[in-house]
Structure formats: C-alpha cells, structure tokens
Write a structure and sequence with these properties.
Largest sheet: 4 strands, antiparallel
Shape: elongated
CATH superfamily of the largest domain: NADH Oxidase
Number of strands: 8
Strand content: 5-15%
Distance between the termini: 45 Å
CATH class of the largest domain: Alpha Beta
Helix content: 25-40%
Oligomer: single chain
C-alpha cells in the first residue's frame, strides 16, 4: 500500500529537523533553509519521528492524523533525581497480598510495555495478561514439568556425562529443580509465588529481534508497576522452561501465536521495602 506522506509548504519553516531525525533518510534538504522534499516514501518504517519533531505540524503522514499527535512539555518529565531513585529502589518483590491487582493498574502496566521501542519500528510485540487462577497454575505446572524432565536426564547414568559435557552449567541447577518440585508438592508455588496476574510478552516466531523487543517492553512495564505500587518480578524460571521446550507447549496451551520471550509476575505487595542498597562495583569501560 502506497504511503501518504507530504510536506505542507505553507506550514513548513524549513528547519530541517525532520530530515535529521528520520532513521530511513526518506526526507531531503539540499541546503540549510532549503525546501524539504520527500525522497523515498517506500522506505518509511512508520516510526513517526518526523511528525513528532515538527514544530509547526507541517509533516502530513497518513498514519499519524492530528488526533494521534499529542503535544507535551519536557518540564512535565520526572526530575533526574526522581528517575535515579526509582532505578536505585526498584527490586523484585515476591511477597504478594491476597487481593487482586486492580484492572486499571494492569491496563497502565500493559500500555507502558506497549509503548516501548521496537527494532525497525516493527511493533510485533504481543501481550497476554493471565489472571485466571487455573491458567496461572497451568504456567507453574508447565514449568515444573520441563524441569522434571531435565532432572531425569541429569540423574540418568548414561545421559549425565553427556549433559555435563554439552551443558556444563546445567548440573548446578539440579538441587534447584529438586527444591522447586519438592516445595510445589508441599503446596508452595516457587515459580509464580502466588502472583495474581502474569503478563507474558511475545512476538511472532520469525521476528528477528523478538527477544530484544520483548525485554524492552518488560522494562517499561516493570518501571510502571513500581510507580503504581504493584509488586512484580521477572518470570525467569518460566522463560527458562520455554527455552528448553522446543515445541511451544505453553504458547499452544494459552492460545498464543509466536514465542514468549519475557514475563512479569504481578501482585499487590504484602509489604514494601524501606531501604535501597548499593550494588556491586560498577563495571564501566571508557573507550
């Protein structure tokens, strides 16, 4: 489909910002103050940078009509000190209260995740919010099932040397898997920790940067959850099981088309942290 993109010459002040900001170089300006021209609209990735940067609304883009363009003021951003405090204080919190997470808060978390950038502006990231207790239990059972099979391979006298040779780090998880299975048998869910919701982030199987895009989305959602007072943690065990399962069983069970790359367990906090602590020394190189 042909892209409708043009420059309103009556509104354009020829500042050249749209030319400089376009990642696909589809706009041109021969000299400073010269006319802005549309060179190769077929290369547009529909990121909207040109529309967002134009101070006069001169860029006319079919994908971004006036009702989709919203002015804002950088003065309304949180201060750098506030952002740094959020980064310093944010922690995983697996101590959930019994009450559910309000739908309005879940919606804000999903929107924040959805707003994250994607490679080439592909916007292929999908979100599945699971709140049904039966389906939450299904996620836990799937994860433990994968770990149980892995544990059998580790314990098999013939396969153990092969596992040690091909995946030398795998055997150190043997006691971890044992504990997870043992605790679950005693009624303690160590996978989701009785979370009231799980946000699964996925992309089509063919997505080249699916993992990166999904985890960028996770970061946005995680920060929003923290701001809203919703406790969350990264579902690392679930994601590890998904990686080990090559037949996409969990995706099929939940009706998800594509591959899950990230997940967030959510719940209202039973209590919150009162201190933040320093991390190990910053490893930084300046080249």
């Amino acid at each position: 489909m042909e892209l409708m993109l043009s420059i309103d010459i009556e509104k354009c002040i020829r500042c050249g910002k749209c030319v400089k900001i376009c990642p696909s170089m589809i706009l041109g300006q021969e000299k400073t103050g010269g006319e802005i021209r549309v060179l190769a609209p077929e290369n547009c990735i529909r990121c909207g940078h040109c529309v967002a940067v134009c101070p006069t609304g001169a860029v006319v883009h079919a994908d971004f009509p006036p009702e989709k363009v919203h002015a804002f003021d950088y003065k309304d951003y949180p201060a750098a000190e506030q952002m740094m405090l959020l980064c310093r204080a944010r922690r995983s919190n697996r101590a959930f209260a019994e009450k559910p997470v309000p739908e309005a808060l879940l919606s804000q978390i999903v929107e924040a995740a959805y707003r994250a950038p994607t490679a080439s502006n592909a916007q292929e990231v999908g979100f599945t919010l699971v709140t049904d207790p039966a389906k939450l239990r299904l996620i836990t059972e799937f994860t433990l099932g994968v770990f149980g099979k892995a544990l059998k391979k580790m314990r098999h006298p013939l396969l153990r040397p092969l596992v040690k040779w091909t995946m030398p780090d795998a055997l150190r998880y043997e006691p971890v898997f044992e504990r997870l299975l043992r605790e679950d048998a005693q009624g303690h869910d160590m996978i989701l920790r009785n979370a009231k919701a799980v946000l699964l982030i996925h992309t089509p199987q063919a997505s080249r940067f699916g993992c990166q895009d999904a985890n960028l989305a996770y970061q946005n959602g995680s920060l929003m959850a923290e701001c809203l007072g919703v406790s969350q943690f990264y579902t690392g065990f679930v994601c590890s099981a998904i990686q080990q399962d090559r037949k996409s069983h969990l995706e099929k069970m939940l009706g998800i088309e594509g591959q899950i790359h990230a997940g967030m367990a959510l719940g209202m906090p039973a209590f919150r942290y009162v201190n933040y602590i320093d991390r190990l020394g910053l490893r930084e190189n300046t080249l």
